[in-house]
Amino acid sequence: MHCTKKGVAALLVISPLTALLFYHWTSYRVTSINIQQGPVSLKVLLEERIQNPHPKNDHIPYRIKESISKSLTINGCVCEADKPVMKFPFSQLLFPQVSATQLHAIFTDSVLQKAKKYRNQEYQRYRKRESTAADSLILSEANSPLQYPTQGVEVRPTRTILIPGKSLLANNEIPHHVHLTASLGTFNIAAQVDGVKVSGEGEMQVHLMSPSLALLNRQLEFVTYTNTRFHPNTADVVQFKAGVFQASFTIKIRHPTMPKFYNPGPNQEYNVSTLVTIATKTFLRYDKLQDLIDSIRQFYPMVTIIIADDTKEPKPVTGPYIQHYIMPFGKGWFAGRNLAVSQVTTKYVLWVDDDFIFTSSTKLEKMVDLLEGTTLDLVGGAVREVTGYTATYRHILTTDAGDDEGDCLHIRTGFHHDIEGFPGCVITDAVINFFMARTEKIQQVGFDPRLARVGHLAFFIDGLGSLHVGSCDDVIVSHASKIKAMLPWGQSEIDEAYSKFRYHSNQESSVNEYDLYYLKNHFKCVTSD
Amino acid sequence: MHCTKKGVAALLVISPLTALLFYHWTSYRVTSINIQQGPVSLKVLLEERIQNPHPKNDHIPYRIKESISKSLTINGCVCEADKPVMKFPFSQLLFPQVSATQLHAIFTDSVLQKAKKYRNQEYQRYRKRESTAADSLILSEANSPLQYPTQGVEVRPTRTILIPGKSLLANNEIPHHVHLTASLGTFNIAAQVDGVKVSGEGEMQVHLMSPSLALLNRQLEFVTYTNTRFHPNTADVVQFKAGVFQASFTIKIRHPTMPKFYNPGPNQEYNVSTLVTIATKTFLRYDKLQDLIDSIRQFYPMVTIIIADDTKEPKPVTGPYIQHYIMPFGKGWFAGRNLAVSQVTTKYVLWVDDDFIFTSSTKLEKMVDLLEGTTLDLVGGAVREVTGYTATYRHILTTDAGDDEGDCLHIRTGFHHDIEGFPGCVITDAVINFFMARTEKIQQVGFDPRLARVGHLAFFIDGLGSLHVGSCDDVIVSHASKIKAMLPWGQSEIDEAYSKFRYHSNQESSVNEYDLYYLKNHFKCVTSD
């Protein structure tokens, strides 16, 4: 009795523990993966199959069409300045010449060697992180009995999908066989068709066989793919084989881009104050800042204004809907811009300089309409000087793939297209420093705090591929007069201190934008007009 | 003489002006585009072609394999809680049950209707901005004489490329014809092959014809595509036709992702101080903050520490390599985190709470090694309480596509895989609040300033698809004791004020993370264990 009681007690303790252990042991299938390499083997696999489709045609001659072939950048890129045709007064203004800067030239030799080595190493690692099998060239071969999806097959990580559109048209082998192979997931079948033998369910290679083509194709409709090797954004290559015929296609494995919507709130109207935050950066010029605020309040009394301030001895800036942030002294314009936009909680953010003045031409509603009604992410306006001269600073930015030395950046004044339905507005790549943008997009691109005060275009270059940019010439803000401040006898003490800091200061820790084009963005040269 | 002089003078003035006008007129080919619609027509075009490949097989029966077919989320998703099997002490701890939250239930009816309407509108616009023809399903048809590239063809906006891999195998028509059609660009030829007639050069449709198949295929090698309708990130669909046979493939039109490298600087060594910035947020707890700083300095005397501070009456925090930012009172933890990371100028940023203590187990070098040597973007460590209990807070986040009501979010404790070569480290989706990350990635995802103090996982959910996350259990930071602060008689005045603000404050302007899952991220429900 004594032993039995102890035995029962022991059992009562051990059984749940065993059950618990068993439960955890069967739920965990811990596998180990190597994430140092990147998808090298898949790329090699694909490239082996892309051979010159008709090497036997190589002997057929051709005549090069210069005008087209010179626009192909096959073996790298160059930055070439225009050769000056003739020089006369205002020639640069009337016929702007393109200049070229070779970026390596801004570094001393010893610094350059070290920078190049570091940059190349970073570039290799970056390629491993960014490339997937979905970028590789795949060809669909002619006269193949295989049908399969070439694009559009996606699965969320660790999930399962049916693979659409696979089938086999008649071939000579009986019974009919097909093989499917993958590397980052396994195959299975969601339903069984009688008369088809399936082997390899739950494996990375599955084999289907049937004497009947119709039955085989019906079974193919039910083949599933499950991602088993986790990665948040990658692609698997599926090999689809029947006899001597083989095809490859990719399955993207990724979470879709996460939406990041803004909502004006349950009790709020849909207007500039609930949709837009105004952001600015200030340094010393509190009088101009106050003029800006007063001018905004004439038209938008309730819009939130965020101010980033890196003045040495900051003064308070107060008022309804004012948010004032104090930074360490002299952190700079880019750091200030990045700070200000990091605090925005509305759908759009409007960037202004602290010496702008709002007028009745500063119709923010027009910018909101454009952003609400189109696929644009950012819309620039126009800045009017006291002279009446109004600037939109529209620029086109293009790049060409280069070599180990880097890529080529080309900057030109201009724009791509007019925008239908929005007169006075165009599509471009860079705009003046008065613009409204979708908050999540501007936060994604960011203003690089490594830059101090110069480098307006650096933001737009960082945004290439991410930002769809527009510009309207009829949303106009005025620029407070600089004339007085530029005359030696017209400068107040503040103007003098400001000017000294902004234009003549040597901050050790800041870099200029050309350094960053080379070191950060992997360019080797720049042309601009 | 008099007239001639005037005439000559007039000519001297008018000619350059005319030349100028002519120059500008010929350089500007301004076209207008509609950017309101998104690529609807291309999608429809493709979907018409994806028909059930073998509707004649529909009569063939099949037997469903439950275990596989239930994991397919074909018609939306659901969030289901586990049914409790049995309840006993510690049952939730030993056998965690999954709970489910239907997000619409957190809103009142009137608020919900308005929110849904707004969110649906945002979602439609978002789809127009984000989708391109490169996402659509395309099938490669069997037994087609056409060979063409199915993936990997890319052109930078406004640039020109050769289209690789196109050719035609024998078909019955003589002479042989092929047509190529596009919507966002034009075709041309980089070289002419004699014996082939080409029409439509420079147009959106080109036609090649030749009595000889070999000559036609040689000419096809030289066909170019030029993007003419600008968009920073889109895709064109090319139709490739020969007689009754037709194939579609896409050409991606985009700038490649812009690299954003960091460089320690020409005279700097490659170590934690040059690669890492430590970022934290503080409120009231200056004593704890100072303990943190002192403990960091024991091991890393020169690493930069950025402090975001939203205390009501902030005190100065000074010292070498300290950057102290003052925020408006009570902006919150997320706003503070977003501010702090917006200011980082090093390659990596380490997030810490202001009440952590560094010890000899806080080896940041290990996190740097992992980030330098793998494709990870973020690595979490472990936080040790005074009791000795150490937490890594690893969570797996998965999502399923839903319906108009939204998608489904599933949160589970755990991880995906061990990491080869890094014992103690795993791949996961969310980690504890002590992590090191690539600066450009953490800035891209961002901490949403709309959240005030709660919602740790919200950051990782925003990062789904963007962040590759790891966790190591042997990089440990200590958590300053909370025990004293939690006992009523142990609280200092500061602890009391802190506690009151953090745990009991009702900020009108802040939202909690469930609001955002619904309104911002388009989820309808959440399950978690």
Secondary structure blueprint with pairings:
The structure is a homodimer of 529-residue chains.
Chain A: H1 2-27, E1 31-33, H2 40-49, E2 63-64, H3 66-69, H4 91-94, E3 99-102, H5 109-130, E4 138-140, E5 146-151, E6 154-155, E7 160-162, E8 167-168, E9 176-181, E10 185-189, E11 191-192, E12 197-199, E13 205-210, H6 213-220, E14 223-227, E15 233-242, E16 245-254, H7 272-275, E17 276-282, H8 286-299, E18 304-309, E19 322-326, H9 333-342, E20 348-351, E21 356-357, H10 364-373, E22 378-384, E23 390-391, E24 395-403, E25 406-413, E26 417-419, E27 425-428, E28 435-438, H11 439-445, H12 456-462, E29 469-479, H13 483-486, H14 493-504, H15 513-519, E30 523-528
Parallel strand pairs in A: 6-16, 17-18, 17-20, 18-19, 22-29, 25-30
Antiparallel strand pairs in A: 3-30, 5-8, 7-14, 9-13, 9-15, 10-14, 12-13, 15-16, 20-28, 21-29, 22-23, 22-28, 24-25, 26-27, 27-29
